[in-house]
Amino acid sequence: MSVFIGLVSVAVAVAALWLETKRSRLATQADILMRLDDRFTSPTLRRLRRAASTKLLAGDAPNLELHEVLDFLCNVAYMVNEGALETRLAFSAFEYWTRRYWYAGQSAIAQERELDPGSWDSLERLLRKFERIRSRRRLENQFRPEEIEHFLQEETRLLDTL
Length: 162
Description:
The protein is mainly alpha-helical. It is 80% helix and 0% strand. It has 7 helices and no strands. Helix 2 (43-58) packs across helix 7, helix 3 runs antiparallel to helix 4 (87-104) and helix 4 packs across helix 6. The longest helix is centred in the N-terminal third of the chain and has 39 residues, at 2-40. The N and C termini lie far apart (64 Å).
């Protein structure tokens, strides 16, 4: 009987440890997500997004601001790829901008990849993960040109503060 009680005690302790680890991981991911969101909506990134969008609409190059925006989104991809942030959380917070900047910036991305073929590979992997989520949810994965243009126009109207 005492062996049985001992086994039950161990099982309860393991379950409690597992639950606490899961809660702690979720709290850490929420903190990472909030920090990323704070940075993405910061005046600096909002100015970069506005300038990048303006240049994309005008066809101006080079678009260093777009590079900065894509580099930020690569940070999100890095967090997902390293397991610090679950894909579903990144999807909820950043899928909208990731897909739109990726497709709007295809020309600039192709030019950069002529010099450095690995440019933004982690971001492209994240985008593919997002597209699989969209497919599972039966959401459209393609954009019409006017949708991208509308998005860019919205981004050009960003204010430095919310």
